[in-house]
Amino acid sequence: MIYPVRQPLKISAAVFLVVLGLLFTYVFFREDAAGIGSSGSGVSYSGSWPASVGHASYGALIVDSKGLVKDAHRLPTADSFLPHFKAVTEMKGMTMDEAKSGCTWLYPAAVTFTFDGSDADWKLNDRSDMELDRQRNKWHEFIESQLLPFEEYKERFDGRGIIIVAGNEKSLKRVRVILRQLMKLKSELPIEIHFWGQELNESSRNALQELWQPNKMFFNDLSDPANIAKTKFNPYLINYQLKTAAVINSRFAEPFLLDSDNIPIIDPAELYDSATYREFGTLFWPDIARTRTNNPMWPITNTKCRMDEYEQESGQLLVDKRRFFYHLQLADWFGNAQPDQYYSKFLLGDKDLFRFSWHALKTPFGSPARWLTSVGTLTPDGYYCGHTFAQYHPDRDDGRIAFLHGGLLKTLSKELISWHRETNGGIFKAYKKHPHDENWSVTTNVSIKWDIAEYLPNKPEGMPVASCTDFYDVEPKILEEILPGFEKRYEEIGGYWMLDA
């Protein structure tokens, strides 16, 4: 019997060519009309993407066979993320062992982790995969059924501006320092102060308004039920959760969040034009420590531990709410919606709520090319105490310092500050810059230490001990080399207000 072999092959080839032609037409149409097409190893997503995904400036996006958008940060609006979120919540849950496999340091003991000095149970004993699944399902449910719709709230924010959470006396004095510095920088950005209840009276508001440009100073009471994101306040604790609420509730569509102890060195308006922000729609700056390999946040957010990533330092943060309105809601949920404060066991304050929300929703975020530099005091005998982080402009081709965040400056006593100011050239005298600050995978010998100030003449009994950052393998250099004139500027803008308090 003669089998008809060749004829079916001709038919199959013809069918193949027709299918290939149809596929080409479909992909071309999707790329042209919807902005999503096949690229690299990705394939076209065949679900019902909103028309807004086709924004021409974002080009073709890479979507895998399960609907995950590889470069999701390029989606142009909050609602264009919804099909992507569906794919995120359908991902297979990651085990603790799978999450831990992402970090393979040869000498883990040499890595600075958050909670290094803690005996937290999760640090000593890995959380069970059953618990991780349960917690992951909770935030999945939030994404699937509890998000506030962007369309309903999008008219409540517009434009760009700086937001600061402040209200008590000390934070308001720090805000005045910021305002004077912004005036020196000739910044024209509007400013919005977020506070709670009665902590900011009318007299304090008027005093701040007098320091800034007419009709460019605004205030928002976070206890007002009219706010989009509802939050809470504990008078006995540090209320980190107010920061995520402030970002969501801000009148600005592109709010720049600035801590009250953070002094801009460049006009923050420049950040909006940076290549990094234009690409990612976010700017998250790094902290000094890394997230522990077995931190439950890795598997809960279906993210492998990363060796090229520091924890986030949220003394400054920039985000486009028109694109990331839902991401911010998840960050707020992680910080506010857990009655047992579950996530506070693994995260310090608000800072990593943002980073892990973006990880959870599989969305890349923008970060500066350079790791932070430590800035602080230096005694004649060479003792260094880093009390401030110098954070950089995000773009690799712009090496300027953008902010000085004095997170540990508040731990220095009046006596110590006075001595440095009067006899040692000021508190902004030296810096330590790591030689591999553009390679975040390199392990850095850094930690927080105590300055008991044995060098201080006539040291008062019972004087508080200061906290300092130190890069132990780096020699201190004089700050004038990279930031000339800042100590004088600090005097001019009233930075030493604490000595008069």
TrEMBL record:
Pathway: Protein modification; protein glycosylation. It is found in: Golgi apparatus membrane. The chain crosses the membrane at residues 12-29. GO terms for cellular component: Golgi membrane. One of its GO terms (biological process) is mannan biosynthetic process. GO terms for molecular function: alpha-1,2-mannosyltransferase activity. PANTHER family: ALPHA-1,2-MANNOSYLTRANSFERASE MNN2. This is Glycosyltransferase family 71 protein. The lineage of its organism: Eukaryota, Fungi, Dikarya, Ascomycota, Pezizomycotina.
